[in-house]
Amino acid sequence: xxxxxxxxxxxxxxxxxxxxxxxxxxxxxxxxxxxxxxxxxxxxxxxxxxxxxxxxxxxxxxxxxxxxxxxxxxxxxxxxxxxxxxxxxxxxxxxxxxxxxxxxxxxxxxxxxxxxxxxxxxxxxxxxxxxxxxxxxxxxxxxxxxxxxxxxxxxxxxxxxxxxxxxxxxxxxxxxxxxxxxxxxxxxxxxxxxxxxxxxxxxxxxxxxxxxxxxxxxxxxxxxxxxxxxxxxxxxxxxxxxxxxxxxxxxxxxxxxxxxxxxxxxxxxxxxxxxxxxxxxxxxxxxxxxxxxxxxxxxxxxxxxxxxxxxxxxxxxxxxxxxxxxxxxxxxxxxxxxxxxxxxxxxxxxxxxxxxxxxxxxxxxxxxxxxxxxxxxxxxxxxxxxxxxxxxxxxxxxxxxxxxxxxxxxxxxxxxxxxxxxxxxxxxxxxxxxxxxxxxxxxxxxxxxxxxxxxxxxxxxxxxxxxxxxxxxxxxxxxxxxxxxxxxxxxxxxxxxxxxxxxxxxxxxxxxxxxxxxxxxxxxxxxxxxxxxxxxxxxxxxxxxxxxxxxxxxxxxxxxxxxxxxxxxxxxxxxxxxxxxxxxxxxxxxxxxxxxxxxxxxx
Amino acid sequence: xxxxxxxxxxxxxxxxxxxxxxxxxxxxxxxxxxxxxxxxxxxxxxxxxxxxxxxxxxxxxxxxxxxxxxxxxxxxxxxxxxxxxxxxxxxxxxxxxxxxxxxxxxxxxxxxxxxxxxxxxxxxxxxxxxxxxxxxxxxxxxxxxxxxxxxxxxxxxxxxxxxxxxxxxxxxxxxxxxxxxxxxxxxxxxxxxx
Lengths: 603, 194
Hints:
Strand content of chain A: 15-25%
CATH class of chain B: Alpha Beta
Distance between the termini of chain B: 20 Å
Radius of gyration of chain B: 16 Å
Helix content of chain B: 25-40%
CATH superfamily of chain B: Pyruvate-ferredoxin oxidoreductase, PFOR, domain III
Number of strands of chain A: 22
CATH class of the largest domain in chain A: Alpha Beta
CATH architecture of the largest domain in chain A: 3-Layer(aba) Sandwich
Strand order of the largest sheet of chain B: 2-3-1-4-5-6
CATH topology of the largest domain in chain A: Rossmann fold
Oligomer: heterodimer
CATH topology of chain B: Pyruvate-ferredoxin Oxidoreductase, domain 3
Largest interface: A-B, 63 and 60 residues
CATH superfamily of the largest domain in chain A: Thiamin diphosphate (ThDP)-binding fold, Pyr/PP domains
Strand order of the largest sheet of chain A: 3-2-4-5-7-6-12
Radius of gyration of chain A: 28 Å
Number of helices of chain A: 23
Number of strands of chain B: 6
Largest sheet of chain A: 7 strands, mixed
Number of domains of chain A: 4
Order of helices and strands of chain B: EHEEEHEHHEHHHH
Number of domains of chain B: 1
Shape of chain B: globular
């Protein structure tokens, strides 16, 4: 098994992307965290001789890497699929300017929406922005394609897109490392006709784009990563990315055309392949991107008529779609309760959402761990669209409702989301005289993606101390007149602050500030867990209304209840498990004083 | 010994599934196999149902295990073992931590935690090995080492020498948690040795 020699590394796709970028001589990288792309820059930051950062959003990240490219460096921007929408403005025009140092944008799609608000197919951007795109199938290709992408970027004077998906980014496989190329020299070189995109220059660049596209089609025809694996010619498949591996496994004997370069298409190669194949199928996740193109070439093929356009594919879905036969008799699933994700024990968001759940307001939500405030028993989120949307949506509702919406509309978003694209929404709210209340959940970190630093957290991606935005001062400078800061684990104060802000005539901001319970410095703090004295519990279930994973309900029979000295109508009691993190929310809600710190209970 | 196999790790976010699957994967790699592992990050990790697919063999293509194709299931929580029943076949080996974690609907008293969960395996004659991970955790002095105890149990069924697991742990675990994990591994492998 020499193929499996130990000299090879075993890396996730995201680790391999970082390694490939490093080996290609990338010296500047910028991005915004987003599942499944986040670990690319976190891993890139481990290498020497590079600079990398978290930008406040994907648009800024791409612009930073455009600048680095203009200065001659090889540069990398990373983002999740929805981040490409944010970065689309610079993306479409950097396609016109082209590059100096190689520029690659990795976009990580999330079919099945494991951790996303939509499933969009980023391949469409390659077509729309007229950019070449590569699509690796596994970590080994992730590394290899990065190096190729930088060469293509410089040879063809174009930014290059690399598309990943969850099952490439978060899959681990064998990767063979190589030595690093020497990074290119950087300098200032003026070239306004190429870099200043005003109409006269842009019109000239526009025609260059068409020529470039033709050259890239030629390259695509000869690119080693567009290849045909000949087998049985009765059925043949055109596929790419992770779908290639599923197809290979489902039909090991079939002929397969694998597109490592997914745009532009190698039209001649596709035509030649199709001519040899009796029945041609296109296997791709999400949109019929290859299929539409192949059909436009006048080639008969079958794709989305059989292959689902929704969610992830896998080997058996493909097998069943093509042969009509599924996996043999499977065991039927047992009926068991669902286990949706939940806020952690001690999560500071829980206090805030508990208070919101007791108010008669429409909660315009946003993207983060706190979106889980939607779930019962808190059920305190009424809309969530995209990063930063909470504020614009709240303002729009306020304008539509007029006086009838007063004291009824709040927006909720996290510190990182506020820096990403909430600030402009707040500017609009003040400028255009709104009355909604904006709640910034400042847990001092970007939480859901696994603790990335941000402009308000006081540290950089490379671990250096940095200026932390003063959120109160910022809101003040924007023109907000009513600003309050509270600890969301203090329920009384939080309720009071919310009430005052909501009743304020004009836009108001409440900053709910307490660090994420999972932060290392929070975990180090000695926190006394709480416990519940069973005999003191009156079964009121108040503590269950916060939805804490450490608290559970134990039903009792009337006989057991009598033994415990319970009143006849008491149906059970609550319990606190050893996972309690000592936040104290439940103790504030317990009217019978059955919940106290464990130490006190033992004393 | 079987030269390829599919292992499904399942449980609740935060139970150490990642570490357990990493140790297993590296031991398989040391033994000369190709291996691919697939997992999901992000929101699902916040206390939700979590699953990791690990496949090994001479050459692995797809990183995902198909329904009905899991040879070994390592379940970190009892109810979660049953959630992935359609992944199993008649000859699957299940290793299940008898520890229970109430999902929100049970914790809030809306439903009760299902009873006789392991009967779902007995009914189909699926070989299953219940392990009291919490007891082993308490015994070795670290409740969180229950995950490695399950790996110890799994090691009895894989075509990999035990020493390779120990080497991997020595190479990859921080010194301060190495000892308890080695102990937990040994305790876990004893359970299935019976």
